[in-house]
Amino acid sequence: MQQQHLPLSEIVGDAAATAPADQAAKDKPAAPGLKAPAKVMVFQDAWEHIDLEGQHPAAAAAAAKPQPKKGFAALRALKPSAVLRREFWSRRRLLLVLLLLLAVLALALGLGIGLGTRGTAGGKAAHGGKARSTYKPRTSSVLPAAARKVTAAEAGDAGQLSSLLQLKAALDPGGVLDKEWTEESGKNRGYCSWKHEWTEEGGRNRGYCSWKYIGCDSTGEVVEMVNLTTDSYVMVLTGTLPPAAAFKGLPGLRVIDIRMNAIKGGLPADWGTLGGQLEVIKLSQNFLNGTLPESWAKLGPSLKELSLWDNDLSGTLPEAWEDLVVMEKLDLSYNGLEGPLPAAWAGLGSKGTGLRELLLDVNQLTGMGSKGTGLRELLLDVNQLTGPLPEAWGALTSLQHLMVSENRLEGPLPDVGAQWPAMRELWVEYNGFEGPLPESWGKMSHLEKLALNDNALKGTVPASFANLKALTDLYLYNNPGLTGCVPASLGTQLQVSPGFSVDDFVLDATGLKGFC
C-alpha cells in the first residue's frame, strides 16, 4: 500500500500549537499508512525547514494558527526535551575536554622552560695556542661521575665559599674579580653562578650550572671545577697559586684550570696532598717558574691530565713522577726543562687507560729514555736530543704523531715502519740522519705527513712508498744524496694538498729527477 504523507502546513501547525492543542494531537489517530515513529519524523522535517532568522515558510499561509517562535526559541520549541538534554551534555563534555587540553599544554610549556633553564651550557671558549692539539673547556657544567661523589653535606656551603674566596685572594691581588666574587653574591650557593660579569642578582635563585668559571656537580651544590681561563686575555689574574690549605673546603674539587693569565711564582709543593681528589690541572700560558715538585707524584692515584706548557719552568724531570700511574696527558712543552727523559717514566699511565700524549717539545732535554707502549702522540721537537732514534720505539705500536724535528739526532732511520701501522704524522727534519730511506716505511698505510728534509739521507726513494695512499705532504728537500725518482702515484696525491709545491718541498736541493 502506498505510504501517505502529512502536508507541511499541518506538520508545522501541530509542532507550534499550544499545550491543549498538543494534547489533542496526541489523541488524534494516526493518518492512514503513517507508522508509529511519525512524530520523530515530524520534528526532524520541521528542524530541516526552520528559518533561524525568521518564520517558517509555511507560517504565513497558516494565519489561523499561532506564529512559530523565532531563532533558537523556535528550535527549543520544536526539539524534544531528550534532544535538548543530549545537546547540553555534549557541549559540557566538549568544554571539559578543552579545559583538560589547556591544562596539559600549560604543564608541557612549564616543563620545557624549566629544562631549558637547567640545560644552559657552561663556558665554551677555544683559546689560541700552538698548531698541535689545544684543550677546549667543557661545554657543560655537569662533569662526568667521579669515582666517589662528594655530598652537599660533606662539602658545606660555608666551607666552599670560604675556600673560593681564599683562592680569589691569592690569584687576584689586582681586584679583577672584586665586583663579582663577594661574600654576598656567594651566599645560598651563589658561587655556583659566579661569572666574569658576576653580580648579586646573578647569584640568586641558585642558577647552578649556568656558571663559566665555577662548576658545580649535577646537584648544583658541590663545586667540582674552578675554570679561570681567560677569553683572549679579557681577564688577567696576576697573583700566585694558593697553598693546598685553600682547597680544604672544596672536597669535591676535581678540575683546576687557570690558563692564559699572568700567574707567577712556583708550583706549591703541598698540592701533592690533594692526591686522590684532583683529576685535571691546567696552568699553561702563565709566568710560573721554579722546578717541578717531586711531591706532586702523590697526585698519582687521581691525576689524569697535567698541562704546564708555555711557562718559565726549569730543572730536570722528576723520576718520582713515575707514580702518576693514571696519567693520560702530560704537557710540559715550551719551558726550560733539561736533562734526559727518565727511564722510570715508562711507568707513566701504567694503570687506567694509559698515557696517550707526552708533549715535551721546545725545552732543553738531552736524552730520550723509554716511553709507555700506549702512546699516541710524542712530541720532542726543538730540544737537544742526540744519537739515533731508538729501535725500541718500534714497540710504540699505537703511535700516531711523532715529532723529533730540530734536534741533534743522527745515524740511520730505524727500520720500524711495519710496527707503526697507526702513524699519521712523522716529523724528523732538521737533524743529521743519514743513510737510505727504510723500505718498511712504505707499510705505514695511514701516513699523511712525512717530513725528512734537511738531513743527510742518501739513495733512492723505495718503491714501497707507492703504497702510502694517504700521503698528502712529503718533504725531502735539502737532502743532496737522494737520487733517482719518486713513485709516480705520489705525484698525483701530493698535488692535492693546498699550497704544496712539489718543486720546493720534494725536489729542491736533492738529486731526484722527478716522478717515474
From TrEMBL:
Calcium found in the keyword field: no
Membrane-spanning intervals of the chain: 94-115
Keyword Signal tagged: yes
Location relative to the cell: Cytoplasm, Cytoskeleton, Cilium axoneme; Membrane
Keyword vocabulary terms for this entry: Membrane, Signal, Transmembrane, Transmembrane helix
Superkingdom of the organism of origin: Eukaryota
Taxonomic lineage of the native organism: Eukaryota, Viridiplantae, Chlorophyta, core chlorophytes, Chlorophyceae
Pfam (any one): LRR_1
Topology term for the membrane: Single-pass membrane protein
Principal place of residence: cytoplasm
Protein name: Leucine-rich repeat-containing N-terminal plant-type domain-containing protein
